[in-house]
Amino acid sequence: MNAQTYLDDIRGALDETQIVELVKVVDRLYEAFASEHTIFTFGNGASAALASHMATDMGKLTSLDFGTGPVPRTVKRLRIASLCDNSAWLTAIGNDLAYEDVFLEQLKNQLVAGDVVIGISGSGGSPNVLKALRYARASGAFCIAFTGAQPKAANIEPLTDVLIRAPLTMMEQIEDLHVVYHHIITRQLFDRISTGAQLEA
After folding, report:
1. Which CATH number describes the domain made up of 19-60+80-194?
2. How many CB atoms lie within 10 A of CB 35?
3. Model pLDDT for residues 114-157, shown as the tens digit of each residue
4. Of the candidates 167, 142, 140, 138, which has an alpha carbon nearest to the alpha carbon of residue 153?
């Protein structure tokens, strides 16, 4: 695939993006913020990197008192964590049980009804992501997934309340779009939180 074709595919996919689904994610994340529920993100490989990226961007950007030092916080902060970032716990679970349990077992320690999970699987068929989503759904969490248009994506859809699907099958392009979607959601969430703070002031 040459560079022009690659970019043309991305442009076409962006035109097909279901903005209403992105808005649904923003709505639910804002509800989690308002109710002080926790958001958990997880995925493998580049999706693990995106899970960490999400927790970083959303956690920092939406902290309206960021940088105020060691004083009691005066505003709510978004409760968000990536399940990909504790290497000791991940490897313990993978070694003692199975790699497909690395997110499930963490959720069993931390998840409560009303929390939000964001599972990221470009193929839609990652066993550890599917297993964690299945548990989260049964436990009363709101389940969001990021996937692509590969055939295995059919496996993840029934486990989600909102599915963000990149309408392409090449993994690199799916990952490109997932980052764009994340940034759209994060900026919209920041706008929602900062506007709410202004109204309360």
Report:
1. 3.40.50.10490
2. 11
3. 999 999 999 999 999 999 999 999 999 999 999 999 999 999 99
4. 167
